[in-house]
Amino acid sequence: MTLLDTLPQKLGSTEQWTESGGVHWLNPGPLSLHDLCMEMIAARARFITITAYQLPKDEGIGLEYHWDLAGQLLGFPFLLKANPGENPKIESIYNLTEAVDWVEREIHEEYAVDFTGRDYEPLLLREGDKLGVNLREIANICKPEPDAPGKEEVKK
Amino acid sequence: MSYKIPMGPYHPALEEPYKLDLICEGETVTDARLHIGFNFRGIEHLAETRNYIQVIALMERVCGICSNIHTLTLCQAMEGLTGQTPPPRAQYIRVIMAELERLHSHVLWAGIASKLMGFKTMFMTCFEIREKIMDVLAAISGNRVNYSMNRIGGVNRDISDPAVILAMVQQLEGEMMKTVIPIFTTSSTARSRCAGIGVLTAEKAISCGVVGPTARASGLGQDLRRAAPYAAYAELDFEVPVEKAGDVRARLFVRALEIIESCKILHQALTKMPPGEINTGEEKFKFVTGTATSRVEAPRGEVIYSVSWKEGSRNPNRVHVRTPTFANMPAVRWMVMGARLADTPLIQASIDPCYSCTDR
């Protein structure tokens, strides 16, 4: 039995690992992110990153927490939904692993996700910039308008 | 009385634009705050507007030093979504390019570190060697910086005469063994300037999640080429240098030893490279819906790409990149605490930071 085999039981999860796209995935189910992080640290796993992506329409934001356990890449997906007019929220794990600091700050700026229980300083954006620069609704503003100046005008 | 010294975002002691606010008492740094984002280009979002050919060219421009690593990692992830397996010869060519790029990056860094040590003749020597490494890369790819070598299912160009490249590598190795390696491993100048400064303990290295030579210089033996081999690394014999001191000298030492190991890998790869095709020959690709993730040991440490696709689409849904400097840079705060103000340029440079990568 490897640590990977015993980990779902330790985490109190009834789910099983599935391997896909180079990652061992485990659906955390009702397990809290905080408890998951504690178990990963206890298992001497190394936090790598969180991948955030915006789901189609108004289905919310997906967060994939990636950890390395003895060379094996582990992934834990979380789905965040928010009420209209509010930012999606999830607890911060910055108090458990400082490696997550810049990652949470970046996602906060790019996808307007609020990681609760921590303070933010601007990371990639400057003070006063609008949050959610990678969100469709905001990023699309940057697309050129049909009557935008052409190349000739730019050359001047 | 404590006072704040802002260093950057444009400063002679910094290679690239970022800002360190150093809190000092006298000449001693008591704390530091780091600010990045001066190169933020929104490349991850831009990638969603590019098709599967264009996105490779785009991601090659995330970084000027490790451009090949970015396309390698991206192509490996996209191969997971298209069911392509590169032929064995392509896997060896990928290793050769990756190790030449590691040599290029480490020697470039050694030059900059020498300059910050006040050892300017060594800076000149390193940059002369770096030019020769770029000549080898140009001999293979036709390009000095953005090599355009990787594609989905293999590589774009063959190494038609490995013996010529091997001779160039052997000449380079001879020069480095006479200059860079002895100076960085035994010289009293390097020792006196680097020993005992910018210490990152193993505990702090684990807590900060640092990667690459920065982690290995703090006693963590992590290297994806060994722990999770990709390309042809599983067939090659090499050591992973690890030092325990965690100071600037340990980082210098690890990189110097890694230069030797890279030469060892290049020797093996260039002599063992099997004959055959260099790519699958496919020109059009069908992506399955899903996410694929790939990791590669870049010169500065682990790079991870997470790529999502929807079947039928020519563009990715999402391309996420976590670069090594993004993981390593927050640890600089702990490295400079308690250091002399005059040592901070060398300490921050000792992680070999890349802000083009970090900001994306």
Task: Tell me about this structure.
- The complex is a heterodimer of chains A (156) and B (360).
- In chain A, the strands form 2 sheets. In chain A, strands 1-2-5-4-3 form a 5-stranded mixed beta sheet. In chain A, strands 6-7 form a two-stranded parallel sheet.
- In chain A, a hairpin with a 6-residue loop joins strand 3 and strand 4.
- Chain A has a single domain, classed as Beta Polymerase, domain 2, CATH 3.30.460.80.
- Chain A starts with a helix and ends with a helix.
- Chain A is an alpha/beta fold.
- In chain B, the strands form 3 sheets. A 3-stranded antiparallel beta sheet of chain B has the order 1-2-3.
- In chain B, helix 7 crosses helix 8 and helix 7 packs antiparallel against helix 12.
- Chain B is built from 16 helices and 8 strands.
- By secondary structure, chain B is α+β, with helices and mostly antiparallel strands.
- Classes of the chains: A alpha/beta (156), B alpha+beta (360).
- Chains A and B meet through strand 3, strand 4, strand 5 and helix 3 of A and helix 3, helix 9, strand 6, strand 7 and strand 8 of B.
Main beta-sheet strand count, sense and barrel state of chain A: 5 strands, mixed
Number of helices of chain A: 5
CATH-defined topology of chain A: Beta Polymerase, domain 2
Q: Strands of the largest sheet of chain B, in order across it? A: 1-2-3
User: What is the succession of H and E elements of chain B?
Assistant: EEEHHHHHEEHHHHHHHEEEHHHH
Classify the beta-strand content of chain B into a percent band. Answer: 5-15%
Low-pLDDT stretches of chain A are 148-156
How many domains make up the 3D coordinates of chain A? Answer: 1
Distance between the termini of chain B: 38 Å
| Termini separation of chain A | 69 Å
CATH architecture of chain A: 2-Layer Sandwich
Largest interface: A-B, 36 and 38 residues
